[in-house]
Structures
1.
Amino acid sequence: MELTYTLCSLEDLQLLRQISEETFSIAFAKDNNPIDFKNYIEKAFALVRIKEELLNPNSDFFFAYHDNELVAYFKVNVEEAQSDVKRDDSLELERIYVLSQFQGLGIGEKLLDHIKKLASEKNKKMLWLGVWQENKKAVKFYERHGFEKFDTHPYFIGSDEQTDWLMRFNLSTL
Ligand SMILES: CC(C)(COP(=O)(O)OP(=O)(O)OC[C@H]1O[C@@H](n2cnc3c(N)ncnc32)[C@H](O)[C@@H]1OP(=O)(O)O)[C@@H](O)C(=O)NCCC(=O)NCCS
């Protein structure tokens, strides 16, 4: 399955906001208290918030297409835009979402390969991410692709405190 990638710009703001909220809700609404969840998504996926993130020079959003159809998006951060590790030689994969109807087809694997290369081309040594410890499918997916847990951090969905695993991939093994 061949994928093509486009770097998102302000012109993509509405679509990016919609895809971000939709993919997050489909993945996680069922596992969360509805009020906490609503409070979270209203803030996290507000148009002004996504616009701010798009305008951050140290953050990039990409859409991934297969046969001209949008199948996934991801967001990467460097330097100060990273949320935990803020090393010069690290890159954070903050979000990676395959649209639900395209999951389990190998797209996630292709995305990770692409992101590892992208990080390597930026001369980064470490690719890292935070994943909800209860998101077993994603944890397993990252482990299968060479990521290992190195820490945890608390993550709030509304007032509900959850635990994210911080996982890293050593880019010098590429
Ligand atoms: C986690 C996620 C990014 C993985 O992407 P994906 O495209 O589903 O991943 P892949 O298809 O490459 O691999 C997933 C599974 O499909 C299987 N698979 C891979 N290629 C396949 C193919 N051609 N046919 C059928 N199954 C396949 C893999 O073996 C893997 O199995 P596993 O779950 O037992 O590990 C995606 O499922 C997703 O967006 N989930 C919801 C949001 C989320 O949790 N994001 C991560 C937040 S940190």
2.
Amino acid sequence: MTERAGVVIIGGGINGTGIAYHLAKKGYTDVVVLEKGYLGCGASGRNGGGIRQQWSTKENITLAMESTRMFEKLPDELDTEIEFEQGGYLVLAFTNEEVAQFKKNVKLQNDLGLKSSFISPEEARDIVPELNIAKVMAATFNGTDGTIYPFPVIYGYARAARKMGVDIREHTTVTDMVTEGSTIKTVKTDKGNIEADTVVNAAGGWSAGIAKMAGVELPNRPYRHEIMVTEPFKRFLTPMVISFQHGIYFSQSRHGNVVGGIGNPHEEQGINQRSSLWFMRTMAKTLTDLVPRFSAVNMIRQWAGLYDTTPDAQPILGEVPEVDRFFQVNGFSGHGFMVSPMVDKVTAELILGETPSMNIDRLMVTRFEGMDLEMEYSVVG
Ligand SMILES: Cc1cc2nc3c(=O)[nH]c(=O)nc-3n(C[C@H](O)[C@H](O)[C@H](O)COP(=O)(O)OP(=O)(O)OC[C@H]3O[C@@H](n4cnc5c(N)ncnc54)[C@H](O)[C@@H]3O)c2cc1C
């Protein structure tokens, strides 16, 4: 039997559930969300919960600033505790190039209204007294950045969207799409077919594969990224600390556990969510070099998820030129949770033919045609 839906959203992560929520909030509920596992089983339930507005491009700064304001209101809106701790983000510079880039970043951030500051290594140590600043050349800090607990946000959106009439299906895998001319006629799943007017590709690390089902070639590719949590201990770390040079970030939750990850520069492209010994060793060494006090703490769990990475480390949003009403919400390159509120709101507006709250032209897939790309520099690789 073939069903019908106005909008089919592929992926039940933060973006799939968030877009469904925003559509429903606007009164549009002819929506089916398809998730092959459980809600949040992709990167959305595996990330570090970092919410950072200190970026190097106007688009990412704006998306993150607007999203932070939306996260602040979300507990009331969803009637859910999301553990949003605004203890700031301390970004460390270890090279002359980073110092020069960070100065530029702070200037742009300040011009856009973010009260971030460029600070000395000693000022960084005042914020994190146990920090080893021997090789730190400078830092930036913004006090309204912070961390969030991802699951209540995903499940809060899903609960609210379902209550308003959205159909969210877990354990339902999209297996193919049937196109006719420049339109997607049918979304095929392992539980039956759905005819749709609009299809949204919010499939994270799997999104390039989903796009291919409709004959669309996307430039984003999946890469494993690993992360861990320590046993809880007395809280001493207020901000999230991050170093692009080391590819590391870490924060301490309100429960006392340190959560952090480190990127492997030699990671091979592909769908791989297994844990590695390399990660455990490298994370432990880098973490204890930066904050020697961590040598007394035990790691209790490690896991992995997928970064969905684009050539310029910026997301792919909006419609693709070759297929009508096929919206992309992917390519977040390791920072898709923190920008999701604004991304999801704007995507819902575009789907409904409204003027978007933010212009996303520079984030559309067509930017890769000329390859005149603006790189986002502030990423953990
Ligand atoms: C270890 C790690 C740490 C990170 N840290 C941060 C951070 O601190 N802050 C931040 O903002 N971002 C972080 N990120 C990135 C962030 O988690 C992602 O950008 C974001 O969660 C993407 O959300 P999404 O909903 O677009 O994709 P996902 O959460 O990946 O959801 C996509 C969903 O699509 C489903 N799917 C795939 N194929 C199919 C199919 N054929 N049929 C049906 N469903 C399908 C998947 O099962 C998955 O649930 C991190 C990522 C990782 C891996």
